[in-house]
Specification:
This protein has 555 residues and is an all-alpha fold. It contains 32 helices and two strands. The chain has a two-stranded antiparallel sheet with strand order 1-2. α6 packs antiparallel against α7 and α15 runs antiparallel to α16. The longest helix has 20 residues. The termini are far apart.
Length: 555
């Protein structure tokens, strides 16, 4: 059964295709969505406020599209997508993409990534009354990530910045391709040059975390601040977090102002959908997601407890955290546990803190899993395993089995593999070391498994962990455990060198110079120059062997 809006939307679409002046009322909320999706094509919000004019525009657009106008094809595809007819959108966007339209290629990538790829029958059947968007939501169709990646590549090659951002996500998360953080950062930087705010924020994350570059909170804050000035909620939250964590020198009051702005943007719908903006082409402010809103409230609550930028009011802060916990926001539970663990303006309670952290771990919180795997405090706080009652007692009529409430108690290596399986790079590295060597972890023996260990090591290296990159590069260079592969060895050395690892810079320099001997003359000179550049960077950081290679021991 279609929703009321689904029926209205279908009637609107059919009226346009039959060229009959029929229209159904549209809610103001839907008008806002229409404006956000179609401003670029319609060039005026007035069209969306005038029902009859919108239908006429749709009819004219369809005639132009059928006559071969590429821009009209793209616009009509957008109309079809808005009306929830992805088969029609797919047909017109495919035609426009084949004729060189970058926007249509990007739109096709979005269709494929959403699982809206239509079958050949449905692509030619415009009379079907099936609401395909609702069908995808109900059936949970799998996206065609490979096709999506191909269309994003095509659009990016034609200069469409949003596709560069999409490719950055694909390379970072391994969607439709292999994980490659270097390529991800390159695409994010290209998109950020076109002022794509999500890409600017992503570049900030790379600099903050040290992915394929040196850890640089200052550079990250510059990027976050640039996007925050345009009211980009994720950047506002990230900048506030850097300030409150004292990674950059800015007054805490600035962080509180940013957090309160994000909260007010979420709570005050008028700030997002008001009529004060008279510029028809200006993009509307981005609404904070639920994740951004919860993160802002959580940071604000911790600031109240710790007295950062405001007078310390632990009761108010804990109340906000409890509200978030009640609503299922797991990071708030972990934040409360940290406050109890260190006794920050609250009564110190290590037992309660570890109990909360165990609950967070069972709910999929990465930092909680890693804490329980590596913290001696967590291991000391684990209750002893109860002894099994005697068999004679079990057979007694008076025996009652006691059910222990709370999260299960796991061994440290179990928590480590949980964190590794959920994508924690350092946990993946530690699990890899233990599995490859068969050594002990937290005082307990680990059964060796080199296949699983190498798998963890690759994921850790691809996730940007320097130690994993260096170890894996050595394995590929020497053919230890894995098949010898100098190309992959250089790849992982390059990742580590870009993050400032002096060992990787030295070995990369030597590897490039050694490989130059087998290359053509033109490529040989380039490889030697690059190799000496990496050796110079290692020497500048005090690497003695690099200095000896470059200067023969003379300083």
């Amino acid at each position: 059964t279609q929703s009321t809006w689904g029926k209205r939307r279908e009637g609107m679409w059919r009226a346009a295709c039959r060229r009959v002046p029929k229209w159904s009322a549209v809610s103001s909320r839907r008008l806002h969505l229409s404006r956000r999706l179609c401003d670029e094509e319609l060039k005026s919000r007035k069209m969306l406020a005038d029902d009859e004019y919108w239908l006429k525009e749709l009819e004219v657009c369809r005639q132009l599209a059928d006559s071969g106008d590429v821009e009209a094809m793209h616009r009509f595809g957008a109309f079809a997508s808005l009306a929830s007819f992805p088969s029609e959108a797919f047909k017109y966007w495919t035609k426009a993409s084949q004729l060189g339209c970058a926007k249509s290629a990007h739109a096709l990538g979005m269709l494929y990534s959403s699982g809206l790829e239509p079958s050949a029958e449905k692509a030619n059947n415009t009379s079907s009354n099936l609401d395909e968007f609702e069908r995808v939501a109900q059936e949970g169709l799998a996206p065609n990530t490979v096709k999506a990646f191909e269309y994003f590549q095509l659009a990016a090659e034609r200069g469409f910045a949003l596709s560069n951002h999409a490719l950055g996500i694909c390379y970072q998360q391994g969607i439709g391709t292999d994980i490659d953080l270097l390529l991800a950062l390159q695409h994010y930087e290209r998109a950020s040059q076109a002022r794509v705010l999500d890409a600017i924020h992503a570049c900030g994350q790379f600099h903050e975390m040290g992915w394929c570059t040196k850890v640089d909170a200052g550079k990250a804050s510059v990027l976050y601040r640039e996007a925050a000035k345009a009211n980009h909620p994720p950047s506002m939250v990230s900048l506030a977090r850097l300030i409150l964590e004292e990674k950059i020198s800015s007054p805490p009051s600035e962080a509180l102002t940013l957090l309160e702005s994000v909260i007010s943007m979420r709570e005050n719908d008028d700030s997002l959908h008001g009529k004060s903006n008279t510029d028809a082409l200006a993009p509307p402010p981005q609404a904070p997601s639920e994740q951004d809103f919860n993160a802002a409230v959580c940071l604000l609550a911790c600031a109240y407890v710790e007295g950062r930028g405001v007078s310390s009011t632990p009761e108010k802060g804990l109340e906000l955290l409890d509200d978030l916990i009640q609503n299922g926001y797991v990071p708030a539970k972990f934040a409360k546990a940290e406050l109890l663990l260190f006794g920050t303006n609250v009564t110190k309670d290590e037992k309660k803190a570890v109990e909360l952290i165990r609950e967070c771990a069972e709910q999929g919180h990465l930092d909680s899993m890693f804490f329980l795997a590596t913290s001696p405090l967590a291991q000391q706080s684990a209750p002893p395993t109860p002894l099994a009652p005697p068999k004679s007692l079990k057979q007694s009529k008076n025996f009652k089995k006691v059910t222990v409430e709370g999260p299960p108690i796991r061994k440290p290596f179990e928590y480590l593999t949980m964190a590794a399986d959920h994508g924690h790079p350092e946990a993946q590295f530690l699990a890899a070391k233990a599995l490859i060597s068969g050594s002990q972890f937290a005082g307990k023996p680990v059964v060796p498994d080199s296949v699983a260990g190498i798998s963890y090591l690759i994921h850790s290296a691809d996730g940007g962990f320097i130690e994993a990159q260096f170890m894996l590069a050595k394995y590929y260079a020497n053919g230890h455990i894995v098949e010898q592969d100098p190309v992959r060895a250089v790849h992982y050395l390059r990742l580590g060198a870009a993050q400032g690892d002096v060992r990787a810079q030295y070995r990369l320099g030597l590897a490039l110079i050694a490989a130059a001997e087998t290359q053509p003359q033109h490529d040989r000179s380039k490889a030697v120059v690059e190799g000496r550049q990496w050796l110079s960077k290692a020497a500048a950081q005090g690497h003695v062997e690099a200095q000896m290679v470059l200067f023969g021991g003379k300083q």
